[in-house]
Design brief:
This protein is α+β, with helices and mostly antiparallel strands and 362 residues long. Helix content is 33%, strand content 28%. It binds flavin-adenine dinucleotide.
Length: 362
Protein backbone atom coordinates (compact mmCIF):
# COMPACT_ATOMS: atom_id res chain seq x y z
CA UNK A 1 0.00 0.00 0.00
CA UNK A 2 2.69 2.45 1.07
CA UNK A 3 5.25 1.55 -1.57
CA UNK A 4 2.67 2.18 -4.32
CA UNK A 5 2.76 5.83 -3.17
CA UNK A 6 6.58 5.67 -3.49
CA UNK A 7 7.03 5.97 0.26
CA UNK A 8 10.30 4.23 1.12
CA UNK A 9 9.51 1.07 3.07
CA UNK A 10 11.87 -1.46 4.63
CA UNK A 11 10.61 -4.79 5.89
CA UNK A 12 13.04 -6.69 8.06
CA UNK A 13 12.83 -10.20 9.54
CA UNK A 14 15.36 -11.87 11.79
CA UNK A 15 14.60 -15.33 10.34
CA UNK A 16 16.78 -16.53 7.48
CA UNK A 17 13.78 -17.84 5.53
CA UNK A 18 9.98 -17.58 5.60
CA UNK A 19 8.16 -20.05 7.89
CA UNK A 20 7.41 -23.25 5.95
CA UNK A 21 4.49 -24.42 8.13
CA UNK A 22 0.89 -24.16 6.96
CA UNK A 23 -0.35 -22.61 10.28
CA UNK A 24 -3.37 -20.33 9.61
CA UNK A 25 -5.70 -21.60 6.86
CA UNK A 26 -8.82 -19.48 6.69
CA UNK A 27 -8.51 -16.35 4.54
CA UNK A 28 -11.75 -14.64 5.38
CA UNK A 29 -13.92 -12.47 3.16
CA UNK A 30 -12.94 -9.21 4.76
CA UNK A 31 -9.25 -9.99 4.11
CA UNK A 32 -10.02 -10.77 0.46
CA UNK A 33 -11.85 -7.45 0.14
CA UNK A 34 -8.97 -5.54 1.76
CA UNK A 35 -6.35 -7.14 -0.52
CA UNK A 36 -8.40 -6.96 -3.74
CA UNK A 37 -6.61 -3.85 -5.10
CA UNK A 38 -3.19 -5.47 -4.65
CA UNK A 39 -4.08 -8.40 -6.92
CA UNK A 40 -3.25 -10.84 -4.10
CA UNK A 41 -6.90 -11.82 -3.53
CA UNK A 42 -7.19 -13.22 -7.05
CA UNK A 43 -4.06 -15.29 -6.49
CA UNK A 44 -5.34 -16.52 -3.11
CA UNK A 45 -8.63 -17.54 -4.71
CA UNK A 46 -6.72 -19.46 -7.39
CA UNK A 47 -4.40 -21.14 -4.87
CA UNK A 48 -6.86 -22.05 -2.12
CA UNK A 49 -9.48 -24.72 -1.55
CA UNK A 50 -13.09 -23.55 -1.57
CA UNK A 51 -15.22 -25.06 1.16
CA UNK A 52 -18.93 -24.89 0.38
CA UNK A 53 -20.53 -26.55 3.39
CA UNK A 54 -20.00 -27.78 6.91
CA UNK A 55 -21.34 -30.99 8.37
CA UNK A 56 -21.76 -32.12 11.93
CA UNK A 57 -21.18 -35.76 12.76
CA UNK A 58 -21.94 -37.35 16.10
CA UNK A 59 -20.36 -40.71 16.83
CA UNK A 60 -19.45 -40.97 13.13
CA UNK A 61 -22.99 -40.31 11.81
CA UNK A 62 -23.92 -37.14 9.91
CA UNK A 63 -26.51 -35.24 11.97
CA UNK A 64 -26.70 -31.85 10.23
CA UNK A 65 -25.26 -29.95 7.29
CA UNK A 66 -25.02 -26.21 6.68
CA UNK A 67 -24.47 -24.96 3.12
CA UNK A 68 -22.50 -21.73 2.70
CA UNK A 69 -24.65 -20.54 -0.22
CA UNK A 70 -26.19 -17.88 2.06
CA UNK A 71 -22.92 -16.06 2.81
CA UNK A 72 -23.61 -12.35 2.19
CA UNK A 73 -20.72 -11.96 -0.21
CA UNK A 74 -20.04 -12.83 -3.87
CA UNK A 75 -17.74 -15.63 -2.63
CA UNK A 76 -20.22 -18.11 -1.18
CA UNK A 77 -17.58 -20.38 0.30
CA UNK A 78 -14.80 -20.37 2.91
CA UNK A 79 -11.34 -20.11 1.38
CA UNK A 80 -8.57 -22.21 2.93
CA UNK A 81 -4.98 -21.40 2.00
CA UNK A 82 -1.94 -22.58 3.98
CA UNK A 83 -0.28 -19.56 5.63
CA UNK A 84 3.09 -20.25 3.99
CA UNK A 85 1.37 -19.96 0.58
CA UNK A 86 -0.43 -16.75 1.62
CA UNK A 87 2.86 -15.27 2.85
CA UNK A 88 4.66 -16.28 -0.37
CA UNK A 89 1.96 -14.56 -2.47
CA UNK A 90 2.23 -11.41 -0.35
CA UNK A 91 6.05 -11.49 -0.67
CA UNK A 92 5.76 -11.91 -4.49
CA UNK A 93 3.48 -8.91 -4.63
CA UNK A 94 5.98 -6.87 -2.61
CA UNK A 95 8.82 -7.99 -4.89
CA UNK A 96 6.86 -6.72 -7.89
CA UNK A 97 6.89 -3.31 -6.16
CA UNK A 98 10.64 -3.57 -5.63
CA UNK A 99 10.54 -4.52 -1.94
CA UNK A 100 12.43 -7.58 -0.77
CA UNK A 101 12.15 -8.65 2.87
CA UNK A 102 15.57 -8.09 4.46
CA UNK A 103 16.26 -11.38 6.19
CA UNK A 104 18.61 -12.16 9.11
CA UNK A 105 18.03 -8.55 10.18
CA UNK A 106 16.85 -8.11 13.74
CA UNK A 107 15.16 -5.14 15.38
CA UNK A 108 17.09 -4.46 18.60
CA UNK A 109 16.06 -1.11 20.08
CA UNK A 110 14.19 2.13 19.39
CA UNK A 111 14.47 5.68 20.67
CA UNK A 112 11.35 7.67 19.94
CA UNK A 113 11.67 11.25 18.67
CA UNK A 114 10.61 13.56 21.54
CA UNK A 115 8.62 15.69 19.04
CA UNK A 116 6.73 12.59 17.83
CA UNK A 117 8.40 12.64 14.41
CA UNK A 118 9.42 9.01 14.20
CA UNK A 119 12.22 7.04 15.80
CA UNK A 120 15.86 6.13 15.71
CA UNK A 121 16.21 2.36 15.60
CA UNK A 122 19.03 -0.15 16.02
CA UNK A 123 19.14 -3.18 13.74
CA UNK A 124 21.52 -6.16 13.76
CA UNK A 125 22.39 -8.10 10.59
CA UNK A 126 24.78 -10.93 11.39
CA UNK A 127 27.42 -9.30 13.59
CA UNK A 128 26.89 -5.82 12.12
CA UNK A 129 24.88 -3.13 13.92
CA UNK A 130 23.10 -0.34 12.07
CA UNK A 131 21.34 2.73 13.42
CA UNK A 132 18.79 4.41 11.20
CA UNK A 133 16.02 7.01 11.39
CA UNK A 134 12.48 6.07 10.37
CA UNK A 135 9.39 8.26 10.07
CA UNK A 136 7.26 5.29 11.19
CA UNK A 137 8.10 2.10 13.09
CA UNK A 138 5.56 -0.73 12.76
CA UNK A 139 6.04 -3.78 14.99
CA UNK A 140 4.67 -6.89 13.25
CA UNK A 141 7.14 -9.12 15.07
CA UNK A 142 4.83 -11.67 16.65
CA UNK A 143 3.76 -12.64 20.14
CA UNK A 144 7.18 -12.03 21.74
CA UNK A 145 7.49 -8.65 20.00
CA UNK A 146 10.72 -6.79 20.68
CA UNK A 147 9.09 -3.61 19.33
CA UNK A 148 6.28 -3.92 21.91
CA UNK A 149 8.87 -4.27 24.68
CA UNK A 150 10.86 -1.31 23.33
CA UNK A 151 7.69 0.80 23.38
CA UNK A 152 6.99 -0.26 26.98
CA UNK A 153 3.55 -1.66 26.11
CA UNK A 154 2.26 -4.46 28.35
CA UNK A 155 0.72 -7.66 26.96
CA UNK A 156 -1.76 -8.67 29.65
CA UNK A 157 -3.66 -11.96 29.56
CA UNK A 158 -3.09 -15.59 30.38
CA UNK A 159 -2.59 -19.05 28.92
CA UNK A 160 -5.74 -21.09 28.33
CA UNK A 161 -5.99 -24.42 30.09
CA UNK A 162 -6.86 -26.14 26.79
CA UNK A 163 -4.47 -28.33 24.80
CA UNK A 164 -4.69 -28.29 21.02
CA UNK A 165 -3.03 -30.45 18.41
CA UNK A 166 -3.24 -30.50 14.64
CA UNK A 167 -2.02 -32.55 11.74
CA UNK A 168 -1.99 -31.88 7.98
CA UNK A 169 -2.51 -35.30 6.49
CA UNK A 170 -3.56 -37.18 3.36
CA UNK A 171 -6.96 -38.87 3.71
CA UNK A 172 -8.78 -41.43 1.54
CA UNK A 173 -10.53 -40.48 -1.75
CA UNK A 174 -14.03 -40.72 -0.25
CA UNK A 175 -13.48 -37.84 2.16
CA UNK A 176 -15.26 -34.71 0.88
CA UNK A 177 -12.91 -32.00 -0.41
CA UNK A 178 -15.41 -29.13 -0.35
CA UNK A 179 -17.07 -29.82 2.98
CA UNK A 180 -15.55 -29.21 6.39
CA UNK A 181 -16.53 -31.41 9.27
CA UNK A 182 -17.08 -30.97 12.99
CA UNK A 183 -17.02 -34.29 14.84
CA UNK A 184 -18.48 -34.86 18.27
CA UNK A 185 -18.69 -38.11 20.20
CA UNK A 186 -19.74 -38.94 23.74
CA UNK A 187 -16.83 -38.44 26.16
CA UNK A 188 -14.41 -37.63 23.31
CA UNK A 189 -12.56 -34.40 22.51
CA UNK A 190 -13.80 -32.12 19.73
CA UNK A 191 -12.33 -32.86 16.31
CA UNK A 192 -12.54 -30.74 13.14
CA UNK A 193 -11.51 -31.58 9.59
CA UNK A 194 -10.65 -28.81 7.14
CA UNK A 195 -10.06 -29.88 3.52
CA UNK A 196 -7.01 -28.34 1.83
CA UNK A 197 -7.50 -29.87 -1.64
CA UNK A 198 -5.72 -32.70 -3.45
CA UNK A 199 -6.64 -35.18 -0.72
CA UNK A 200 -4.89 -33.15 1.97
CA UNK A 201 -6.76 -32.16 5.14
CA UNK A 202 -6.07 -30.32 8.40
CA UNK A 203 -7.37 -32.23 11.43
CA UNK A 204 -7.44 -30.28 14.65
CA UNK A 205 -8.56 -31.37 18.12
CA UNK A 206 -8.73 -29.86 21.56
CA UNK A 207 -6.58 -32.71 22.79
CA UNK A 208 -2.79 -33.26 22.70
CA UNK A 209 -3.02 -36.40 20.50
CA UNK A 210 -5.09 -35.60 17.39
CA UNK A 211 -3.77 -38.49 15.30
CA UNK A 212 -5.16 -41.05 17.74
CA UNK A 213 -8.64 -39.57 17.23
CA UNK A 214 -8.77 -39.87 13.43
CA UNK A 215 -11.52 -42.36 12.46
CA UNK A 216 -10.27 -45.48 10.61
CA UNK A 217 -12.65 -44.86 7.70
CA UNK A 218 -10.84 -41.61 6.89
CA UNK A 219 -7.87 -43.78 5.77
CA UNK A 220 -5.14 -41.57 7.22
CA UNK A 221 -2.01 -41.50 5.06
CA UNK A 222 1.06 -39.31 4.66
CA UNK A 223 1.60 -36.66 7.35
CA UNK A 224 2.81 -33.26 6.07
CA UNK A 225 2.95 -31.32 9.34
CA UNK A 226 1.97 -31.88 12.95
CA UNK A 227 1.95 -29.58 15.94
CA UNK A 228 0.71 -29.67 19.53
CA UNK A 229 0.30 -26.40 21.36
CA UNK A 230 -1.37 -24.42 24.09
CA UNK A 231 -2.64 -20.94 23.32
CA UNK A 232 -2.95 -17.73 25.27
CA UNK A 233 -5.45 -14.94 25.32
CA UNK A 234 -3.51 -11.66 25.40
CA UNK A 235 -4.02 -8.20 24.02
CA UNK A 236 -2.35 -4.83 24.43
CA UNK A 237 -4.40 -1.87 25.62
CA UNK A 238 -2.50 0.48 23.28
CA UNK A 239 -1.37 0.33 19.67
CA UNK A 240 0.45 3.61 19.21
CA UNK A 241 3.35 5.43 20.83
CA UNK A 242 4.09 8.57 18.80
CA UNK A 243 4.80 7.28 15.30
CA UNK A 244 5.26 3.67 16.31
CA UNK A 245 2.48 1.10 16.04
CA UNK A 246 1.84 -2.56 16.81
CA UNK A 247 -0.02 -4.92 14.48
CA UNK A 248 -0.76 -8.67 14.33
CA UNK A 249 0.29 -11.13 17.03
CA UNK A 250 2.49 -8.42 18.54
CA UNK A 251 -0.78 -6.84 19.69
CA UNK A 252 -3.19 -9.77 20.16
CA UNK A 253 -3.07 -13.55 20.44
CA UNK A 254 -5.94 -15.96 20.94
CA UNK A 255 -7.17 -19.48 20.25
CA UNK A 256 -7.26 -20.85 16.69
CA UNK A 257 -11.06 -21.33 17.00
CA UNK A 258 -12.70 -19.24 14.30
CA UNK A 259 -9.47 -18.83 12.30
CA UNK A 260 -9.15 -15.13 13.03
CA UNK A 261 -5.49 -14.53 14.04
CA UNK A 262 -3.84 -14.01 10.67
CA UNK A 263 -6.87 -12.17 9.26
CA UNK A 264 -6.91 -9.72 12.14
CA UNK A 265 -3.20 -9.03 11.60
CA UNK A 266 -3.67 -8.36 7.87
CA UNK A 267 -6.57 -6.05 8.69
CA UNK A 268 -4.40 -4.15 11.21
CA UNK A 269 -1.65 -3.77 8.60
CA UNK A 270 -3.81 -2.67 5.67
CA UNK A 271 -5.80 -0.11 7.66
CA UNK A 272 -2.63 1.35 9.21
CA UNK A 273 -0.79 1.48 5.87
CA UNK A 274 -3.73 3.33 4.29
CA UNK A 275 -3.69 5.88 7.08
CA UNK A 276 0.09 6.40 6.98
CA UNK A 277 -0.15 6.76 3.19
CA UNK A 278 -2.69 9.55 3.60
CA UNK A 279 -0.33 11.45 5.90
CA UNK A 280 2.86 10.87 3.91
CA UNK A 281 1.41 12.24 0.64
CA UNK A 282 0.88 15.66 2.25
CA UNK A 283 3.71 18.07 1.50
CA UNK A 284 5.25 18.90 4.96
CA UNK A 285 5.52 22.56 3.86
CA UNK A 286 1.72 22.70 3.59
CA UNK A 287 1.06 21.03 6.95
CA UNK A 288 -0.38 23.43 9.53
CA UNK A 289 -1.37 22.93 13.19
CA UNK A 290 -5.03 22.12 12.40
CA UNK A 291 -4.00 19.50 9.85
CA UNK A 292 -1.55 17.95 12.31
CA UNK A 293 -4.23 17.77 14.99
CA UNK A 294 -6.70 16.27 12.47
CA UNK A 295 -4.11 13.60 11.59
CA UNK A 296 -3.46 12.80 15.25
CA UNK A 297 -7.22 12.40 15.74
CA UNK A 298 -7.37 9.96 12.82
CA UNK A 299 -4.58 7.84 14.30
CA UNK A 300 -6.21 7.86 17.73
CA UNK A 301 -9.44 6.74 16.05
CA UNK A 302 -7.53 3.94 14.25
CA UNK A 303 -6.14 2.81 17.61
CA UNK A 304 -9.61 2.81 19.21
CA UNK A 305 -11.09 0.87 16.29
CA UNK A 306 -8.32 -1.72 16.28
CA UNK A 307 -8.58 -2.24 20.03
CA UNK A 308 -12.36 -2.68 19.77
CA UNK A 309 -12.02 -5.06 16.81
CA UNK A 310 -9.38 -7.16 18.62
CA UNK A 311 -11.50 -7.27 21.79
CA UNK A 312 -14.55 -8.46 19.83
CA UNK A 313 -12.51 -11.01 17.87
CA UNK A 314 -10.94 -12.45 21.02
CA UNK A 315 -14.41 -12.73 22.58
CA UNK A 316 -15.75 -14.64 19.53
CA UNK A 317 -12.73 -16.92 19.49
CA UNK A 318 -13.11 -17.56 23.25
CA UNK A 319 -16.78 -18.47 22.83
CA UNK A 320 -16.07 -20.82 19.90
CA UNK A 321 -13.24 -22.44 21.85
CA UNK A 322 -15.47 -22.92 24.91
CA UNK A 323 -18.18 -24.54 22.73
CA UNK A 324 -15.56 -26.80 21.13
CA UNK A 325 -14.05 -27.79 24.47
CA UNK A 326 -17.26 -28.62 26.33
CA UNK A 327 -17.74 -32.36 26.50
CA UNK A 328 -21.22 -32.24 28.01
CA UNK A 329 -23.87 -34.69 26.77
CA UNK A 330 -26.14 -31.64 26.31
CA UNK A 331 -23.90 -30.40 23.47
CA UNK A 332 -24.52 -33.64 21.56
CA UNK A 333 -28.26 -33.04 21.85
CA UNK A 334 -28.32 -29.32 21.20
CA UNK A 335 -25.81 -28.91 18.34
CA UNK A 336 -27.70 -30.85 15.60
CA UNK A 337 -30.95 -29.07 16.46
CA UNK A 338 -29.21 -25.71 16.49
CA UNK A 339 -27.72 -26.33 13.03
CA UNK A 340 -31.07 -27.57 11.64
CA UNK A 341 -32.81 -24.51 13.05
CA UNK A 342 -30.19 -22.21 11.53
CA UNK A 343 -30.81 -23.92 8.18
CA UNK A 344 -34.53 -23.28 8.43
CA UNK A 345 -34.26 -19.55 9.17
CA UNK A 346 -32.58 -17.68 6.30
CA UNK A 347 -31.98 -14.46 8.27
CA UNK A 348 -30.34 -16.37 11.15
CA UNK A 349 -28.39 -18.47 8.66
CA UNK A 350 -27.09 -15.30 7.01
CA UNK A 351 -26.01 -13.92 10.41
CA UNK A 352 -24.26 -17.13 11.45
CA UNK A 353 -22.46 -17.43 8.12
CA UNK A 354 -21.41 -13.78 8.22
CA UNK A 355 -19.88 -14.47 11.64
CA UNK A 356 -18.14 -17.60 10.41
CA UNK A 357 -16.75 -15.93 7.28
CA UNK A 358 -16.28 -12.52 8.93
CA UNK A 359 -18.03 -11.29 5.78
CA UNK A 360 -19.09 -7.67 5.47
CA UNK A 361 -21.70 -6.55 3.01
CA UNK A 362 -19.98 -6.08 -0.39
C1 LIG B 1 0.30 -24.04 15.05
C2 LIG B 1 -0.39 -22.76 14.69
C3 LIG B 1 -1.66 -22.83 14.11
C4 LIG B 1 -2.33 -21.65 13.79
N1 LIG B 1 -3.55 -21.72 13.22
C5 LIG B 1 -4.19 -20.59 12.86
C6 LIG B 1 -5.44 -20.61 12.16
O1 LIG B 1 -5.97 -21.68 11.86
N2 LIG B 1 -6.02 -19.42 11.83
C7 LIG B 1 -5.44 -18.20 12.12
O2 LIG B 1 -5.96 -17.13 11.75
N3 LIG B 1 -4.28 -18.15 12.78
C8 LIG B 1 -3.64 -19.30 13.15
N4 LIG B 1 -2.43 -19.23 13.75
C9 LIG B 1 -1.95 -17.92 14.12
C10 LIG B 1 -1.29 -17.23 12.97
O3 LIG B 1 -0.31 -18.07 12.44
C11 LIG B 1 -0.74 -15.94 13.52
O4 LIG B 1 -1.82 -15.15 14.00
C12 LIG B 1 0.03 -15.15 12.48
O5 LIG B 1 1.16 -15.86 12.03
C13 LIG B 1 0.49 -13.83 13.08
O6 LIG B 1 1.28 -13.17 12.15
P1 LIG B 1 2.30 -12.07 12.61
O7 LIG B 1 2.97 -11.65 11.35
O8 LIG B 1 1.64 -11.07 13.46
O9 LIG B 1 3.35 -12.83 13.56
P2 LIG B 1 4.32 -14.02 13.18
O10 LIG B 1 3.72 -14.93 12.17
O11 LIG B 1 4.75 -14.60 14.50
O12 LIG B 1 5.55 -13.30 12.49
C14 LIG B 1 6.45 -12.49 13.20
C15 LIG B 1 7.71 -12.33 12.39
O13 LIG B 1 8.54 -11.39 13.07
C16 LIG B 1 9.87 -11.87 13.03
N5 LIG B 1 10.57 -11.29 14.21
C17 LIG B 1 10.35 -11.56 15.52
N6 LIG B 1 11.14 -10.81 16.30
C18 LIG B 1 11.89 -10.06 15.46
C19 LIG B 1 12.89 -9.05 15.65
N7 LIG B 1 13.31 -8.68 16.87
N8 LIG B 1 13.45 -8.48 14.57
C20 LIG B 1 13.06 -8.84 13.30
N9 LIG B 1 12.11 -9.76 13.06
C21 LIG B 1 11.52 -10.36 14.12
C22 LIG B 1 9.76 -13.38 13.07
O14 LIG B 1 10.93 -13.97 12.51
C23 LIG B 1 8.50 -13.63 12.24
O15 LIG B 1 8.80 -13.83 10.88
C24 LIG B 1 -1.73 -20.39 14.07
C25 LIG B 1 -0.47 -20.33 14.64
C26 LIG B 1 0.22 -21.51 14.94
C27 LIG B 1 1.60 -21.44 15.54
Amino acid sequence: MLSREKAAVRIIDRNAAPAAESRALLVNHHTLDLLRDTGVSEKLLAAGNKVRSMKLTIGGHERARLGFDFISHPNRFLLLVPQNVTEALLADSLRELGIVVERRTEFVAARMDPKGLGAEIDLRTGGAMETTRVSWLVGADGAHSAVRKALGIEFPGAAYEYDWSLVDIKLGPDIEQDCMELCLARGAPFLARLPLGNGKHRIIANDPAVEELIPDEWEAGQVFWRSAFKVSHRMTDRRLVGRAALIGDAAHIHSPAGGRGMNLGIEDGVTLANLIRETTVIDPALMNKEMEEAMRTRFRQWERERLARARATLAISDRLQAIAATQSAMKLLVMPWALRLINLLPSVKREVLALLADARQP
